[in-house]
Structures are given as C-alpha cells and as structure tokens.
Write a structure and sequence with these properties.
With about 1200 residues, this protein is an alpha+beta fold. Helix content is about 40%, strand content about 15%. Strands 7, 10, 11, 12, 14, 17, 18, 19, 22 and 23 form a 10-stranded mixed beta sheet that branches. A 5-stranded antiparallel beta sheet has the order 26-25-24-27-28. A hairpin with a 6-residue loop joins β8 (about 175) and β9 (about 185).
Length: about 1200
C-alpha cells in the first residue's frame, strides 16, 4: 500500500521535527508517601504533568533495557528496520549496575512501538515501497508525540521489547498462526510475538474438568488477567440448578460455578497491581437461573450492608455491656455481673437483645469481664470497595449482563409469559411473566448498577460473519462483540487534535489517520501471540479490529454545541460514519493486495449486506434496510453543522462497499468505541470515548506535587465562539475557579479578620491555604492558624478544636450567608450556573454528566446519553462502551424505560449507573453540600409511651396569634386515589404549626374550592389556639371519595379521604404520631441501613427546619440545595465503631484506666477519619466519584465507560 505525508517531511529525521522537554514525575499517596518517582525524563513539549506521569509510571519499561545495542541483519528487511539486541562486548566494558537500565525518554517508547509495527508490516507485505514504510513510521511517531491517537495499554506494555532491545524470556503458553504458512505454532519466546490485545471473548462448555470446560476457563482467564487484559464469556450453556447429571444426581447449577469463577478472578490482581480482574459474565434471558443471576449482586450488596451494620451494632452493644460491668464500682464482685442487681448491665443487655445481638455473645462479654478484662474489641466492616466486607461476598469481580432477545422484549410490551429452557433437554423448565422479569432487571440495575443489557437480536442482525456462529458475549466493557474465542486490539483517535485553526473539523487529516491506524491494528493481529489455540485461530481467521475515538465531549463543548442537541448528535454520527467507512475502505484496499480474511468467502454475502446497511444509514435513509428488525437512527444530514463531513461520510461508504465487493475485506470488524481510560490520560483528553465532560473546573497537576484549579480548557474557546469578550470570559472563569484569596471579598474581609485578632503574618499564612482550598472552611483550622492563636486570641476550647464538625467561621460570628459568599469568592462556584455575563440560553452547552460544584443544579438527562449512542451506533462495527448516568432520585421504572429506549433506538448494549446505587460510592447528594444548619431545630427526645392520654382543652381569651410575614414550613406533594394533592404548612418561629393550605390538581373544580376554604378555617382555628390534636382526632378516618392508595408520601400509603390523608400527615410531622403512618419511623431515619428500595424519594425531600418527624433535620437533596446536617453524627458513629480493628482482649491493669484509654483512642482515630471524610467531599466537589484508587489511594477516580479510571496513576477497573 502507498502512503502520503500530511504531518511530516522526508528531509528531516522525525524526532528533529518535534519539540521535547525534560521533566520529572512523581505520584504520591494521599499520606504523602511516594508511589513512583522518575527524574530527568524526556517527553513531548505539550504533555501535561498527568500525561507525563502516566507515560513514565505505566508505559516506560523499568528494567532490562541494554545501555549498548547492535543491529541484527536481515536480508529481507531494510537496514533501518533491523531489530536490536544487547551488544555484549560494549556492555562488558561498563560497570555491572550500568549495563541495563530502564526507558527514560518518550522517544524510546515511540520508536519501539512504531518501529515494531513498521517491521512486521514490512514482513507482511503491507508497503508498496520502502518510502511508504518510512512515511508510515514518521507519520505514526508524529501522531503519538502530538497526542493525536494511542493504542490500548497492552501495546505500550509489550510491543517492541524484543525488536528494540532484544528482551526475551521463556514461553508463557501462548500460540500464534504463522502469517506465511497459516500453521498453528506454539510460542518459544515470550516477547518475539507480543501480546497487544486488550479484549477477549472466551467460550465455556457445560463440562467440569475437560479442555474448554468450566475449570479450564478459570485457568484461561488467569492467563489474561495476569497481563492486564479483560475477558468475557456467555455462561448460558451451563445447566441450571437441579438439572440432571449424566452420572446421576442433580447439578449444583450455574450460580455455584459463577461464584467459584468470581473468587478465582478476585485472587488474581491484574498486571500485578491491586486492581481487580476485568471480566464480563453474560447469561441469556431464557436460562433457568436467570432470576437468580439478575439478583446476584443485589443480594450480595445486602450482605455487605448487613455485615457493616451488624458488626458495628455488635461492637457498640458489646462495649456497652463490658462498660456496664467495669464501671459498677459501687457493687461487689458478684453483684456487678448480675443483671438483676446491676441496673446498667440489665439496660445494656436489653438494648443488645433489642438490636438482635446473639445472647451467647452478650454472655461471653460478661464472662470476659469476670476474668478481669476491661475492654472488648469486635472487628467492624465498612463499605469501602476494597474493604473486607466486599471481599467477603461474591459477584464483585465482574460486570454482569443479560442477553435479551426481541421476542422477550415484545413479550414485555404485550405483558405476556416467558419460558425458561432447561439446558440438558431443551424443554421448558418454568413459565414466568415477562413483565415481572423485566421489573426484576430494572430493580437490580437501580439497586446495584448491574446487570447491563445486551440486545441479542440487534447484535446478531449486524453480525458480519454468521457462518462462523452466533455472537454470544462481549469483553468486560461491552464494546467488543464477536464470535467466541476471538480477541480485539484497540486504538483511539483524539478528536480535539483534528481541527483547523478556526475550530472546524479537519476531515482530510482525520481520514489519513484512520487509514494509518487501520494498518497498525491489522499489523498487530499479524504479529501477535494469544493465550490459547482457539483464540489464536479465531483471531487469525477473522482479524477483528477496534478503532475508535475519544474526546467527543470536549470537541462539542469547544464548538459551542450542547451534548444534548441535534447538532451534537449529527456531528458525532458523521465522525463515526467517516471513521468506520474509511477504515473498511482501507481494509478492502489491503485485501486487494494481500487477500481478505481467511473466513471471508463463506461470510461474503452477509458481510456485504451489513456494509449496505451502514451505507444506507450514512445516506440518511429511513427505510430499505436488509434483515433488520430494529431500524437504526440514520445520519442527520439536516442538523450536521459541517456539511463536508456528510459528503465525506457518503463517499467513504461508497468506497468501502465498492472496494469490498471487488476485493473483500481484510478484517471482519473495524471499529468500536472504547472507554479510552489510561490512554485518554496519555492523550490529555478532556473526555473519554463517547462520554460528555464530567466537570467544568479541572484540577491541573503540578510537577512537584499538588494541584491548582483551572477552568476546563474548552470553556474559554466555547465562550469566544459564542461571542463573549476577553474580559467577560475572565469574569466567568474567575467565578468558576474563584479568586484564591480574601482580597476584595466583602463578606469576610481582611479588616474583619484583623478586628478579630488576625495578624499580618497569620493572614499571609492563611492566604497560602486559601489559594488551592476546595472549601473556605478547610483553611480555617487549628493546623493553619496554630493552637495558641485559636485558644488565646479566638477563645476556642480543646473540645471545639478536636471536634471535626466544628465550624470555626461560624463560631467567630460570621453568618451562613457571609461564609457562603466568601466561599464563592475564594473557592469559586465550580460551575457556570449563575456566572456573570453568561446567557441562560448558553448554559446547556456546558452541561456535564453530573451536577457541577456546590451550587450547580444542571446535568445531562438520561435520554441525552442514549440518543448520543444511537447517533453513532449505526456506523460502529462492534458496540459502544458507555455508562448511562442517572441521578439518585431516579425511579426503578426509569431504569426500565432507559433500557427499553436503548433497544428501540438500535443500541447493542447499555449499562446504567444510578448515583448511590453502590454502597461503596458515597452519595453526591450527601457530600456536595457541607453546611451545618442553623441551630433553630427543636431538640426533643422521643416521647415515652403513654398509658393514658390526656388532652387539655385550652380556652384562649387573648387575640389571635398571627404568623410572621416570612415563615417556615414545607410542601408535601402526594396522590390520593389518583388525585394530586399539595399540602403546604406554615410555622411559628418555634416550629409550631400555624396554618395549612390544601390544593387539588383539579383546576376550576368546586371540590378544590371547598378544600381551600376548609384549610383556611383550620388555619384560623390553629391561630386561635385550637390544639392540632383535636383536628387529628376529628378528621382522621373520615371516609369519602377520592380515597385509596397514596403515592409520593414516604410514611402514608393508604387513606380513606383527602382529610384523612391531610391530618395523618400533619400528625406524623408535628405530633410524632407515627402510629398513624404505614411505614415505621425507624425506617425513615437517615442512618437506617436497608435494601435501598425507598431511597429515591427519601434522598430528595427537603423538609422544614421546624419540628419535622422528631429529627429537626434537613434531608439530603440531590440538587445540592439542602444542608447535610446528618453527616456529622453518622460519621462519628462510624469512626468510634471502627476504632478497634479485630477481636482481641486486654487484661486489666486498673478498672478505669483502660476505659479512658479507649476513649482517647476513639478521639485519635476520629481525626484521621474526619480528614478522610473531607477528602471524599473534596473529591465529589471536583467531579470525581468519591472513592479512593485501589492502586495509589488518591481520590481521583472518574467513571469511564462501564468502569472507573484514576486520573492520578491511570489505573482502570476494566480492560487496560
């Protein structure tokens, strides 16, 4: 093949045409310990510190690189492509420790990658002349250096070590098919043929121990996990529980083996790091164990919740029993252990019994106390992803998917039955409701983010090679879908690097890059070795590729288009069409020179049919598709902002079909859209894959450690394109990132601080802390200001300073409003909502996947994610790896609707992630807001149970007590018997009820007017002193229409009338009459641990600051508008219960000494835990997930397709 130069010139050596610089790299744990350090390394000029760190830590070869090399002559290869080996003679002259080093320059890495690709492409006959080979080498080095594209991580790890440095080792049990003879060969070397593939699909047979069976799969998976690759399998061939075995007896079933495989995968740390294995478990919708499979992770998450709650309750109550025994100093030795004589012990035993603590555990504590021990330690668990609680349960080492067919989905729509089929004889095992099964899928996705769905019929109707079998499974991230026992190597193009100076898309450069990278991926198939004979043969026979793109979110924002807009979807579709069309055209061109893939002939008819369907979609056709049940979303010619892309898309598919009909294709698949996790960081992509951006304010890493806040780099460009002036853009940016100091701050001024005793030296020290603070309250602490100043000048006590909930600014006399205004001034809003100059019409352009900042409310809808995927899917050979982000308050039905919409729009797969659906992921609603509510709440203990109720009738002779003009209260929306009711309350300053409003959603109805007037009459009575109890007794249980089921209220589920509902609600809220509700009061508490079914409503109800449900709290709100008052006690309880790590006993040296020691230990541990809570809060405010990276422990994990990636060290939880 012939190649032209677009980026380089032949006269100058390639690295002389590029700018490089010296840099250093350092990655630290949150505690400051160094994870990795490299000094005096060489990287391209434009590489950010994050890209430098990833390259140096992940991709530089750390050892075995010879300090002296020599070339190995090959007659059929140009001399500049000869491979290198260590020059033993030259090495012998060096000191022993200087003979072998590691890579220290990006030039070395780029040379070994591109040199190896060029070497094997030459041997495969892919270049017409030597000049074409040189052009290919230079252009590829240029693209890697300028971050225009990157291959998947196994290429960086493995490719070129043998070619560039002569590094080798014994075979690891791999195979390859010789490209010249077509014969299967067992590898004799570990690196001569590298393993560049990231994604694998493996088959599994219903056989226990033979090759290709269940236990053999765990071995094959282990071989892949060890080197950082991911694999997926469809386990539907395995028989269900209770099905007959050939030797007699019954099978233990699919789930028992899935649990074994999960445990095996969890024991293998991918790539030798602490990250878990990347694995996909797929089960067909008609499998007898499908219900158990769907609920697998739901049940396992419940086990985690039980472990966490149970262990902490046991530790709490057992400690109280021990304390009661030890502190009974006024009783003799025998009496203090007798609950009949020791009242404190009796109370502790009854409390433990009430919390379901096993009786023998309670007795055991008393026995230990009798033996002289004064302290009991009981191991507690937490919900951290890498904690022992999660390691104890099953199902945590894979993504789970269900394969659904069109027949099943139609049965759901028609509310029909669905048959589950036995695997042994093909007969019906059970007939169940399709709708009930669909509801189970939606609930599981809502509760624990699994399973995802794969649309089996759609996948196989777009299958290019059905003669080879059906597509049954996918890789862990769901973008690679092809035959079992095949592999795919990926590469992604950074779309932001393919633009003209005016911001328009550079179509010619993009197509040029697609052509080169298609050859690169094809060469990788030719040179690769594989972990099994079957995969080696399948990859040789079909030669599937995975070319994709990254940074579409950044491209759209920079161009001034909202991610959720017709223009954005049309642009994404057009780019996808050009990419895959040009890739297939290149594949057909190559087939004309070296031949089509070996199994093309038997699949030619169906493959050309698929190509014609792709072409019809590129032409924008709404009909005429061949063999498709669900029609794709065609390319939107009308709304595409770049007409040239539409024309080029049509041209690319014309050529792809024409050349394919003439020569066939070299590759059965050409493209996927992958998550681009680690390689996205190397390319400095703002967004990964097809994802939107996750934050408006980014945190740029500094070479010496630390971060500083910058506006997302595409925001100023977008604002310029929208017509804003330079000064306006600066004001908007400053609003988002803050000023970093209190200079010119009106709310908390420098003079105000000086009046309170701050010196110039202290203010200078404070300024340094404020510069990069995420919240102003974090800067005002004892560590910044010093204990002496805090105690002597400000007058704070040790107890206050040690309390991690202590708000120093509030204690100094500043109001909440002043603190918030200062926060915005210093730290910025981290959102563009409310920014000066910015027009409301332009806000959608800057919408992100999640709410931005502490005051942001906007985020992209569920539908926007799905429709963007639908715009690209008709032009992608494989599928798209993407997570559909959903807010915490999303309902179960919305999960089902999202899955159904995905099917109807022609997607091949989909995965949902509802915020907070994992116990290990803290709720964004609970952490974005960190204010403490003003202490207005009425603090009252729960009322004792009354044996006799006395109602005192008060006759008031004084005048009506009117409400304040600005009053508190709450609005409760509900539906009674299908009729909407809005109940609004008004309160006095002390929280007493003073008025109600009842509004019906029946405009103009007489009934609505009656309700209004009734509410006025009740309000007047309340203001004249009529007790609310009287109204409750008079009107509850009244019966008239409308009546029936109540929805929208967390405590009341049925009422006999509107009045019955109204006064039940008021009695529960203001009189603590939970006996009138249908849900236990305990279940409404913020610290209740349950299954999560009712959280969507509870987590988004903002209630009054008055006397509400005996809590006096503002419930968390997903939109960030409510304060997180409940966080403090919850964290405190967690900390103290985690103070002791394992069950142990400590002999007494004195009766009271150990108790005080325990208290001090709890205080000591509380402070680091508070720091951890702050780190989580900071991470959530930055747009991260709030979890720590399992490899480097930094809180910089972001959602990446269906996985997570760390923006600090580049680790991913999916395929490398």
């Amino acid at each position: 093949m012939q190649f032209e130069r677009r980026f380089t010139t032949p006269e100058t050596e390639i690295f002389a045409q590029l700018s490089y610089r010296k840099a250093s790299s350092e990655i630290r744990n949150p505690d400051g310990t160094i994870v990795f350090s490299a000094q005096d390394i060489e990287v391209p000029e434009q590489f950010s510190q994050v890209a430098t760190d990833i390259l140096a830590q992940k991709y530089f070869r750390k050892a075995g690189v010879p300090a002296a090399l020599k070339k190995v002559e090959e007659n059929d290869v140009p001399s500049w492509l000869w491979r290198s080996v260590p020059d033993e003679k030259a090495l012998g002259k060096l000191a022993e420790d200087a003979r072998y080093t590691g890579e220290t320059s990006a030039k070395q890495v780029f040379n070994r990658l591109v040199g190896t690709w060029t070497y094997w492409a030459w041997k495969g006959g892919y270049f017409t002349t030597e000049d074409d080979a040189k052009t290919y080498y230079d252009e590829m080095v240029f693209m890697l250096s300028l971050q225009m594209a990157a291959p998947n991580s196994p290429q960086w790890f493995n490719t070129g070590l043998h070619w560039a440095y002569g590094i080798d080792g014994p075979s690891q049990g791999h195979f390859y098919v010789d490209y010249q003879t077509g014969k299967m060969v067992r590898s004799k070397s570990s690196y001569e043929h590298p393993q560049p593939h990231a994604c694998f699909i493996q088959s599994v047979n219903d056989d226990l121990v033979n090759e290709g069976g269940i236990m053999d799969l765990w071995v094959r998976e282990a071989r892949l996990f060890k080197y950082g690759s991911g694999t997926g399998s469809n386990f539907s061939r395995l028989r269900g529980s209770g099905e007959s075995l050939s030797g007699g007896g019954k099978s233990s079933g699919l789930m028992s083996f899935l649990k074994i495989g999960d445990r095996a995968a969890g024991a293998i740390k991918s790539g030798g790091t602490t990250r878990r294995a990347a694995k996909m478990v797929t089960v067909d919708i008609d499998h007898p164990a499908i219900e158990e499979s769907i609920d697998w992770k739901v049940v396992e998450e419940q086990k985690v919740a039980a472990l966490v709650a149970g262990s902490k309750l046991a530790q709490k109550h057992m400690s109280e029993v021990m304390k009661a025994c030890v502190e009974a100093a006024d009783l003799d030795e025998e009496a203090r252990y007798n609950p009949k004589q020791n009242k404190a012990l009796k109370k502790a035993i009854l409390a433990a019994r009430g919390a379901m603590i096993p009786e023998n555990y309670v007795q055991r504590v008393i026995q230990f106390a009798q033996q002289g021990f004064t302290e009991i330690a009981f191991k507690t668990y937490d919900t951290d992803w890498d904690s022992e609680a999660y390691l104890t349960v099953a199902g945590q080492n894979s993504n789970n998917s269900v394969r659904v067919t069109n027949d099943f989905l139609n049965a759901v729509l028609e509310d029909g039955d669905w048959e589950l089929i036995r695997r042994t004889d093909g007969k019906v095992a059970e007939k169940i409701s399709a709708s009930d099964l669909w509801e189970k899928i939606a609930h599981a996705a809502w509760a624990c983010a699994d399973p995802g769905l794969q649309y089996d019929t759609t996948i196989n109707e777009w299958h290019t090679c059905p003669a080879g079998g059906r597509i049954n499974a996918s890789n862990p991230c769901s973008e690679y879908m092809f035959l079992d026992d095949t592999a795919c190597n990926l590469a992604s193009l950074n779309l932001m690097q393919f633009r003209h100076e005016d911001g328009s898309f550079d179509i010619e450069a993009f197509e040029h890059a697609v052509r080169l990278w298609t050859i690169t991926l094809e060469t990788s198939v030719l040179m690769a070795q594989f972990p099994s004979r079957e995969i080696a043969q399948g990859s040789y026979d079909y030669r599937t590729l995975g070319l994709g793109f990254a940074n579409i979110g950044g491209l759209l924002m920079a161009a001034g288009y909202s991610y959720d807009s017709d223009e954005a979807r049309a642009l994404c579709g057009a780019i996808s069409a050009v990419m895959t069309g040009r890739s297939y055209a290149t594949s057909a061109e190559l087939a004309g020179e070296v031949g089509a893939f070996p199994r093309y002939k038997e699949n030619a008819k169906t493959m050309l049919q698929v190509m014609r369907n792709h072409r019809r979609a590129a032409y924008g056709s709404a009909e005429g598709y061949e063999g498709l049940s669900v029609l794709p979303v065609p390319l939107d010619h009308k709304n595409c902002p770049e007409a040239g892309l539409i024309e080029q898309a049509k041209k690319a598919w014309d050529e792809a079909l024409e050349l394919g009909e003439k020569h066939g294709y070299r590759n059965a698949q050409a493209s996927v859209i992958a998550p681009t996790g680690t390689i996205g960081l190397v390319m400095d992509c703002d967004t990964t894959g097809i994802e939107p951006d996750f934050a408006i304010v980014k945190f740029k890493k500094l070479a010496g450690g630390g971060y500083f806040k910058i506006i997302n780099r595409v925001v100023p460009e977008a604002l310029t394109r929208l017509g804003y002036s330079e000064s306006q853009i600066q004001d908007i940016s400053r609003y988002a990132v803050g000023h970093g100091s209190l200079e010119s701050c009106q709310a908390i001024s420098m003079n105000a601080l000086k009046d309170k005793g701050f010196t110039d030296a202290l203010l200078a020290q404070l300024a340094g802390s404020l510069e990069n603070a995420f919240d102003i309250k974090f800067a005002f602490n004892r560590y910044t200001l010093g204990d002496e100043f805090c105690k002597d000048t400000l007058g704070f006590t040790d107890a206050q300073l040690n309390d991690f909930n202590f708000n120093m600014l509030e204690a100094m006399g500043f109001s909440k409003d002043e603190i918030e205004a200062a926060n915005l001034h210093v730290c910025g809003a981290m959102t563009l909502e409310g920014a000066p100059h910015l027009q409301d019409a332009h806000l959608p352009i800057f919408d992100c996947a999640n709410v931005c900042g502490r005051i942001g409310k906007r985020f992209l809808s569920v539908s926007s994610h799905i429709t963007m995927m639908a715009a690209a899917q008709p032009f992608i050979s494989g599928a798209i790896s993407k997570t559909i982000n959903m807010p915490n308050n999303a309902a179960v039905s919305e999960c089902g609707e999202a899955y159904m919409q995905s099917w109807k729009l022609g997607l091949k797969a989909n995965a949902l992630y509802r915020d907070g659906s994992k116990l290990s992921q803290p709720l964004s609603s609970a952490l974005i807001e960190d204010e403490e509510e003003e202490q207005e709440e009425v603090q009252m203990s729960a009322a004792p149970q009354l044996v006799e109720k006395i109602v005192e009738r008060i006759i008031r002779e004084n005048d009506r007590q009117r409400l304040p003009d600005r009053r508190k209260g709450y609005t409760q929306k509900a539906s009674v018997g299908g009729h909407k009711v809005y109940l609004r309350t008004g309160e006095y300053e002390d929280g007493r009820l003073g008025e109600i409003f009842i509004d019906m959603h029946k405009e103009g109805a007489a009934f609505r007017s009656l309700m209004n007037n009734f509410a006025i009459a009740v309000s007047i009575g309340l203001q004249y002193g009529v007790p609310l109890e009287e109204y409750v007794e008079a009107f509850t249980f009244t019966r008239f229409e409308p009546q029936g089921i109540v929805t929208g209220n967390d405590a009341i589920k049925m009422s006999t009338s509107i009045l019955d509902y109204t006064f039940r609600e008021l009695a529960i809220s203001y009189l603590d009459r939970h006996d009138l509700g249908h849900v236990s009061a305990d279940d409404l508490a913020m610290d209740t641990t349950g299954t999560g079914e009712a959280q969507s409503e509870l987590m988004n109800r903002v209630t009054s600051r008055g006397f509400i449900r005996k809590q006096g709290l503002v419930v968390y709100s997903n939109d960030g508008s409510a304060a997180a008052s409940a966080v403090a006690p919850t964290v405190t309880q967690t900390v103290t219960s985690e103070a002791v790590a394992e069950t142990s006993l400590k002999p007494a040296t004195g009766e009271q000494a150990s108790l005080s020691q325990t208290a001090s230990v709890a205080e000591t541990i509380a402070r680091p835990e508070a720091s951890m809570a702050n780190k989580v809060k900071e991470a959530r405010m930055q747009g991260y997930e709030g979890e720590s990276c399992p490899e480097c422990q930094n809180f910089t994990l972001v959602r990446n397709g269906t996985c997570l990636k760390c923006n600090t060290c580049g680790s991913t939880t999916g395929c490398s």
